[in-house]
Structures are given as C-alpha cells and as structure tokens.
Specification:
Blueprint: H1 3-14, H2 20-35, H3 41-44, H4 52-66, H5 71-75, E1 77-80, E2 83-86, H6 96-109, E3 115-119, H7 125-133, E4 138-143, H8 146-158, E5 163-167, H9 178-181, E6 185-190, E7 195-196, H10 205-208, E8 217-218, H11 225-237, E9 238-247, H12 253-262, E10 265-272, E11 278-285
Parallel strand pairs: 3-4, 3-6, 4-5, 6-9, 7-8
Antiparallel strand pairs: 1-2, 9-11, 10-11
Helix pairs in contact: 1-2, 1-4, 2-4, 6-7
C-alpha cells in the first residue's frame, strides 16, 4: 500500500469514531515515529510504498485505534511540558490540567533551593519537569506501583535529571522509609486518584479500557482518601511554612479547602483550570 492509500484507509475506518483532524494527527504521528517521515512527506511522496512489516505495523495500529486504545499507548510515549516521556499501561497519560498544576508550582518556586516530593508520581512527569526547571532543587517521587517507579526512573534518565524515586504506599505510614520521613520537604505536590467510581459511566472507553484504574478512581464514600492520607503524612514530612499542591476533582474543592483548614493550613488557594473548573489547591502549613 502507498502512503496515500494507508491514510485513506485510516479515514475510512476511523472517521466514525474520531474527529477527522484527530485521525489525520494519528496517521502523521505514527509515520513519523515508525518511519521517521515528516508530515509533508505525503505531499512529496504520496505514492511511496509501505509494505511488508512496515505495512503490518500501520495496520495493527489502525486496529488498536479502532478499539479506542489511546495513541500514546500505541506509540509508547508522549510529550508533557515539552519533554519526552515513555508510557505503558502501568501509568496514566499526563493531562493538560496537570501541566497547569506544574506551572503553578514553578511560578512560585523559581530560583529557590527546595526539597520537593511528588506523591503518586506515575510516569514521573511532575517530578521530572520540576527537576528540569528547578536545577537547584532536590526532587523525589513516590508511588505504590513498582512498575511505575521503574518507568519513572527510566524517564528521568531520558530527560537527564536526577530524581530519587521510592516505591511505597502513602496511606501506610509504616512502609515509608526513614529517608523519606526525615527529609522535611519544602513542597509536597500530588495528583492523586480522585475520579469517583460513580463517574466511570461518564468517561470515554479509551480511558476505562486502557488506563490503570488504581491511579484514577476512588470509592464514592472515600472521595478524599488520598488527600487525608497526604495531609496526615505532611504533618511529619512537610516543613512549617511549606506548601501542599493538589490536583483535585472539581466537585470537592470546598471540601478539600475545609479539610486543610481543619488541619491548620493557611493561605489556602483554590484555582480553576483553563476550562473554568476547580482543579488545583495550594495551602501553607502553619
């Protein structure tokens, strides 16, 4: 098949599932990664033949897209904050709203020599971007998943930053190493699981069928489970006047603010994302 024919086949089979421009984007991302062909190559060489294993890999990717597997998992990588990250089924795909959270942290921390911890690091995207942009800072990340820690470590190497990663459960204080507990962090940042199980019915199949549920969902009757756990952990691990930054479910902004007030935090700020949804909170430990 020629490039033009494969592109046409993508539209024939995918335009009923995705927007036309999305299908275009998928096709060009795939030929760039698999064959190092730039977008303009189809204009210059529309009749370039893709055959054998190369054709097979494009048609296999087409089948995966038909099943609504996210393009990031098909490619095995994504970009976040301008950096390259490897991905697999053990970690979430980084979201634009998390870039907003990272931007907020960076705006308030430039030029400062800080100790920062990313709780629930996943692919390591938050910790690694902070390390890349705050070269004087000491950055650590933790996650309950050993596989996620392995991938985050690999991503730190890819992006040439030094981040210490720890495999542990933030909800079980007895599993936290002395190395973590003795650091006294200036900042703790987290994008914990916050989507309610009851909200699954509102989500797209490409998320439900592919991304790790343990990193996304919480029981409806324990919606603030991880916020409570991190605040409890921060009683020992966060310095006085240190900052907590959270990404949140828009439904619980005020409840999390109240939780922070109850735990003697001050200067609590609830911030909306670009879509006008309550999405981030920053608070200072008194």
């Amino acid at each position: 098949m020629t490039l033009k024919e494969i592109r046409s086949e993508y539209h024939i089979q995918l335009d009923d599932i995705y927007d036309f421009n999305e299908v275009e984007s998928f096709f060009y991302m795939l030929i760039e990664q698999y064959f190092q062909l730039p977008k303009y190559s189809i204009a210059l060489e529309p009749d370039k033949v893709i055959s054998g294993p190369d054709q097979t890999i494009m048609l296999e990717a087409l089948e995966e897209l038909k099943s609504q597997k996210p393009i990031q998992y098909i490619l095995g990588n994504t970009e976040f904050f301008g950096l390259h990250f490897k991905l697999n089924k053990d970690v979430l795909i980084p979201r634009p709203e998390t870039e907003e959270l990272v931007t907020w942290v960076l705006e308030e921390c430039q030029g400062m020599n800080l100790k920062i911890l990313d709780v629930g690091t996943g692919s390591g995207c938050i910790a690694i971007v902070l390390a890349k942009n705050l070269p004087e800072a000491q950055i650590s990340g933790l996650d309950i998943s050993r596989r996620a820690i392995g991938l985050a470590t690999e991503n730190a190497s890819i992006n040439d930053v030094g981040v210490r990663f720890f495999q542990t459960d933030i909800l079980l204080s007895e599993t936290l190493s002395e190395e973590i507990m003795d650091k006294e962090f200036d900042i703790i940042v987290s994008n914990p699981p916050y989507v309610l199980n009851s909200e699954k019915k509102e989500m797209r199949l490409n998320v439900l069928d592919n991304e790790p549920h343990s990193a996304l969902f919480v029981d409806d009757d324990r919606a603030l489970l991880f916020y409570n756990g991190i605040i409890e952990f921060a009683k020992k691990a966060l310095k006085v006047n240190g900052s907590l930054y959270f990404e949140i479910n828009e439904k619980f902004g005020q409840e999390i603010c109240n939780l922070l007030k109850e735990n003697k935090y001050s200067d609590i700020q609830l911030k909306q994302d670009i879509y006008g949804k309550d999405r981030m909170i920053r608070a200072i430990k008194s």
